[in-house]
Amino acid sequence: MPPGAVRALCLGAALAVLAALPWWMANPYYVNIASQILFWAVFALALNVLVGYAGLTSLGHAGLFGMAGYTAGLMLAAGAGHAAAIVAALLATLATTAIFALLALRATGIGFLMITLALGQILWGIAYRWASLTNGDNGVKLADRPAPLGLHLSSPDAFYLATFAVFLLCLASMRLFVRSPFGASVRGTRDQPRRMRTLGYNVWLVRFLAFLFSGFWTGVAGLLFVYYNQFISPQVVALQTSAEVLLMVISGGVGTLFGPVAGAAIVVVMKNVASAYVERWNMVLGIIFVLIIVFMPEGLVPGAARLVRRGYRGLRAGSGPAAAEAAASPGTAGR
Amino acid sequence: MARSALSLRNVDACYGDSHVLHGVSFELAEGRLLGLLGRNGAGKSTCMNVVVGLLGARAGEVELFGEAVTRYPPERIAACGVSLVPQGRRVFRTLTVRENLAVAARRPRRTGAAPWTEERVFEMFPRLSERRNQTAGLLSGGEQQMLAIGRALMGNPRVLLMDEPSEGLAPQIVADVGRIIGRLKADGLSIVLVEQNLKLTLELADDVVIINTGRVAFRGSAAEVAADHALVAQNLGIF
Q1: The architecture CATH gives domain A21-295
Q2: Its topology with respect to the membrane (chain A) (predicted)?
Q3: pTM for this prediction
Q4: Quick one: which of A73, A167, A180, B69 could link to A38 by a disulfide (CB 3.0–4.6 Å)?
């Protein structure tokens, strides 16, 4: 069987197992953790569009995430229906993203990072201080989850399945994006912006559209988050959320399709499972990140792919590990 | 006299405070190949950067088929039909060969010459075709040069600028690149060839411009340069 078919088969099997999770995972606690992993993965995939493919590191995405959550929460509190709240939340997030992009895309690199950080903090300040609108530190509660197609999402299983469907859509759109000419042009602006201009691209516009794409999926993740918790508070909008998602992307593998998913899984599992056994779970998470940086600086997914390939070639050729490493191609990892 | 494809008139350019080009003027006629010669640091690449708009001209005019493009941003100049094969190749290393070509694709401006497509580029560079799904960073230097040329062609240019395409390549590959440039010229493309390789340039060029410390030192035919050893020694030789 060709390696491509093997990969497709493995991926299909993994997705089937994940789709069936509510049936083999009896404990609703773990089903809920799986839901969390999936919507954090959607968030991390969204951030990865900018960090990984456009080469623009944002520390303000928690603001966009919170924008979606707060808009939906406040609309519902004001008596709107779920459909109206969701559409309004996505539109508000896209509009905010456009403003973010207009201001932040005046710079790249550290400048871009600082502007997005500042913009994120402004939204956090609004959520925290504009108490008459946002209810301040007390946050906004949601009375109910929606019931799309007559399936009420109040049970952990139903919510998991809905989240999984959204996650699949997100993953498919990311794959489509990466493979498309537009995705190639985004990566081109990351690698050689001047070259892209001489090829006739408006680099600013390419980055702006990538930012909007990233903002859209961040908004979707924010909606899943707020419906999962049925609650949102300024803490979600804080810098720590932005940093955490950035860590998911970097530890999993920047600019790869499955890296952000793996990163989200590690962080969520650490937060929920390890904290039950180890009081200083933050330290455990820190140690894991240090180990990833030391042994797989390119991230978990490309790093693991490299090790597997090395082992596979060593096995096949029967040659020493040095020769296999020389044959392993660093540039194609995790693509 | 054929129509002017590209002309520079009294172009001055600076990097910050350092004045690099001093009143540079030359003209590329349609369908011809102009060799731009000069030592390291003479200002050849700077001329190319001014033409594609990456560096603004402090004074003077750049015209494409009679249209003044001096103040245009790079993307607009590209849309006017200028493609650059940059010095040092500068392919997109993390993109595959096919993606490098796809990113550069641009619809041809007019009918007439057959438009460049991925298939046509692969036909011209069979080696690239074999490696089409390879990441460009893993190609050899010669292959990357082929890809840089192919990428420029995908823009269906009216004027092709090539900045030292023979730089750092093995003699065998330089000969291949030379043959390809000859074919493009035979197809009727207007080409500016920036080179340090005198022999390659004189084989290919119709007209030659020699730049010395930011000024045009000579403007004439390739045959004149080939015959004038003193000119070559003064402006290109190493003392």
Answers
A1: Orthogonal Bundle (1.10)
A2: Multi-pass membrane protein
A3: 0.83
A4: A167
